[in-house]
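User: Can you recover a sequence for this backbone? Please restate the input before giving your answer.

Assistant: Of course. Working from this structure:
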């Protein structure tokens, strides 16, 4: 008898992933040899194990105020698109004299609900750490459409309201989607690096 796997859609808040990893790299990895980077494609491949992957979505922004940064971001976004991600990219806004991202949380909530309404998935994995997702996004998907939502976040950068509202949690620290610039195909986890630094 064929095993029917649950249908999965992945939702990645790209700014959360980038900013969190940048902070971790600057705090813990600055003295280690090599330029450390994260790979959302590898992360999605890990998430999809044991599921029938339907779609993977990446939400981010582009800094149109800085041509050099914008070009690097555009190349990265193109890479993700080529590797099968549905891309939602917004321009940074100037608010109170600072560059800020607006609209990503709402876009994720809308997509989670519309795709649940259309019965496109059974399980959603949400890479984020923002309490804005708790209401109405996650709870509406769970209660109205009876979908499971699993939160994935870094241990020290977790929104506990969101984590507790979801049906499960995945620690990004334990997943092998980190690599060095010199060897982009050799993946390892943050936990393995913390072990070398004797951190927990």
């Amino acid at each position: 008898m064929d095993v029917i796997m649950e249908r999965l859609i992945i939702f990645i808040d790209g700014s959360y992933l980038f900013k969190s990893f940048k902070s971790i790299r600057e705090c813990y990895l600055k003295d280690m040899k090599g330029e450390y980077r994260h790979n959302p494609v590898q992360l999605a491949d890990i998430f999809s194990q044991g599921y029938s992957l339907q779609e993977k979505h990446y939400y981010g922004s582009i800094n149109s105020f800085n041509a050099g940064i914008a070009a690097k971001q555009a190349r990265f976004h193109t890479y993700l698109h080529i590797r099968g991600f549905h891309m939602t990219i917004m321009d940074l806004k100037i608010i109170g004299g600072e560059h800020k991202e607006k609209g990503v949380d709402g876009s994720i909530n809308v997509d989670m609900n519309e795709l649940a309404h259309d019965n496109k998935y059974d399980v959603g994995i949400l890479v984020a750490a923002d309490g804005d997702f708790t209401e109405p996004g996650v709870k509406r998907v769970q209660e109205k459409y009876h979908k499971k939502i699993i939160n994935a976040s870094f241990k020290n950068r977790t929104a506990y309201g969101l984590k507790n509202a979801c049906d499960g949690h995945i620690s990004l620290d334990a997943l092998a989607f980190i690599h060095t610039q010199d060897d982009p195909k050799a993946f390892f986890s943050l936990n393995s690096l913390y072990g070398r630094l004797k951190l927990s």
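That completes the design. The longest strand covers residues 52-62.
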